[in-house]
Amino acid sequence: MTSLRGKLELLWAEWQTLARHYTDDEVLVGEWFADIRDKHSQPHRCYHTTEHVYQMILNYREFYQELTYPRTVLFAIFFHNTVYDPKCPAAENTARSLEEFESCAQDLDLDSDLVRDVREMVGLTAHGHFTEEHEQERPVTRDLHYFLDMDLSILGSNPVEYMLYAGRVREEHGHEVEEEFCVRRAQVLETFLSRKFLYATREFRHFAEDAARRNVSKEVEMLRARAAHVAGLSHTCSNKDTCSSNERHV
Fold this sequence. Notes:
The chain is mostly helical. It has twelve helices and no strands. Helix 1 (4-19) packs across helix 3 (50-62), helix 5 (90-108) runs antiparallel to helix 6 (112-124) and helix 9 runs antiparallel to helix 11 (209-238).
């Protein structure tokens, strides 16, 4: 198993290679990497961490030969969650992450086409990772869809890894009461299940689509059961003068 240090070294190597295409300023390259690393290491993050970036980089390396503009995809991977506050709407987090990217783009003097494409990729993460291609039988090969599929690759992981992921998402939303969280997340996941495909590319449909649907369906079932349980306890408590301490802290 790769250590945290080893994972950060891999991220640093990828970032150096990427940024050095645009600048010889080693201080600038180091400062931007430190900013990305530190933001992904904030204590309120449990899933949207350097580990998530690392896993996406592994996917990026695996599908590198399929990408038309790999540097664009790599910038999107590094910046799509640079700002993440679970108490804020996804659109706000995404907008602020893009502000971070655009500041970096100015420092590195990135061309306008690359900036536009990164904006499109990152922007779609705030809208359910959905495109009209997700409703088509024929898989697609656009860089955009490889990026979106990489970002959702955890959905198709083995059941143990998936439940660890689900638990980390719950930790990030610890400010939400149980019933509220369960209902809201179940609704989000049911939106995913309503699509014809969760993934748009041939590779992800082949190895992850079925597993992702099983995992997501199972979590929705568990969330609905938890919400009903908590609602039942609340109803019981509301009809009594007092509730036991255990009931109040389920």
